[in-house]
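In the current project phase, our protein records have gained a structure token line. A sample record follows, to show the layout:
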Amino acid sequence: MPHDTPLIATIAIGLALAFVLGLLAQRLRLPPIVGYLVAGIVVGPFTPGFVADQKLAVELAEIGVILLMFGVGLHFSLKDLLSVRAIAIPGAIGQIAVATLLGMGLAWLLGWNLGAGLIFGLALSVASTVVLLRALQERRQVETEKGKIAVGWLIVEDLVMVLTLVLVPPLAGLLGGTQPADTSNPGLVAALGVGPVWATLALTAAKVALFVTIMLVLGRKFIPWVLHYVAHTGSRELFRLAVLAIALGVAYGSAKLFGVSFALGAFFAGMVLAESQLSHQAAKETLPLRDAFAVLFFVSVGMLFNPAVLVAQPLAVLATFFIIAFGKSVAAYLIVRAFGYPNCVALTISASLAQIGEFSFILIVLAVNLAIVPPEARDLVVAGSILSILVNPLMFMAIDRLSAGETPAPGVQQEKAAAVPSSTSPEADEPVTALSDHVVLVGHGRVGSAISSALRARSIAHLVVEEERSAVDGLEAKGVECFVGPCGERAMLDRLNLKNARCLVTAIPDPYEAGHLVEAAKAANPNIRVVARAHSAEAVDYLRKVGADVVLMGEEELAKSMSSSVS
């Protein structure tokens, strides 16, 4: 008996098609995002065949945004957020202003009125949460200086969009659209002698302030307590459920009760939980779902795309794309440089913001429904979004190559040290190791620390690469050179002198991250000996395939030791 199951169909067909086309894109040496977007176009309403439920796809994609921002919050603290406010606040506002003016200029050329141009420009001014964070996470830059600036910038943009979305309906009449009936009578506000626009603005600001206060005062104590309580039950299933309930529950509650976006609510939930010792485990538990729903975000974007706009308005599409990818990108670059940051930071921020996404769609659809902008504005925004998302990975690849050989201006990093400690941000001014014929040990957790102790006992020259500063505290005092930061970045790999190293030991549990290091080490030095750890037979095969000389699986080694002890 057939069943009408649009939710299952949307998830199953969307993910299956995204997988196939993403794999094909990878084989063609294109970013997998290309495949995900094409999958959305295939199941969208503008192409023949199966049409997925667009509303469901957008809601599912929103879950990906929630989990993504929750994960970012887990690696952030209030101190980190405040440390970049001097650049994030004026930078985001300045970049929004420039992009909005450029959008208004294009709208004027298209014959639209001033209100339509204002909304169109605002829709082009804000970056996509998913695209920005995905690019930073792929390069392991979220916790670097440039990553913190980008996230702070994103939070400011988020707040600006929250205010914009609540102000557009009462201002619809002034913007040339149709004012909703429920905003025409201010009620008590009029009796108090305050205009509806000012009342809406004040109420929104009060709600946001109340939400932030509750999260920082009550949430900071209650959320970690709940997670620690669940952890003591010993049930991993309940722990995983608690993490998801906190992330989704706070995000939903913040949107419904305080008018804050899902993304901002989830970010604060993660940030107040970041102080807990269980934050890393919480991030690990949400990772699989976060990645799956992030893919659905790109599928949902593809579903919005009407290919006919490329034929009907090719020049307008190109102009929209150039405003997104280059106009606001150049503005962001100049602003960051004006604040004295090095070229590599400015390039990363500009590339991070050279695309648009979820807030742009929400704003432009709202404006179309209120008759502020013509329907073709929506098509231009979606087309510009897809083109910018496709080009964005290429921009990052170009920046990676430029930044690899770049030396920042002397003293720049020292000027920023008070804001963001350079020890947690492996920028290009950190020295290359002077060691030769040495061992490179990646990871200094339970396994890595034991290996380092054994190497010190045998007086074997080695260095340690570790993401967490706390994991290597005191190690340098013992004569061990340490590099703190993401081990997979090109700039970090260049400092390890792999071409003259005798051995690489990867003590990290992630086989794919380890595989990337193995390939990089073998490319730099074909004679280097690589020793890796694994947790499954599949991981053993994979690491051997990419070039590891010795791969040890914990369970196997434990079984050998225990069996040898049997008399």
In short: The chain has a mean pLDDT of 81.
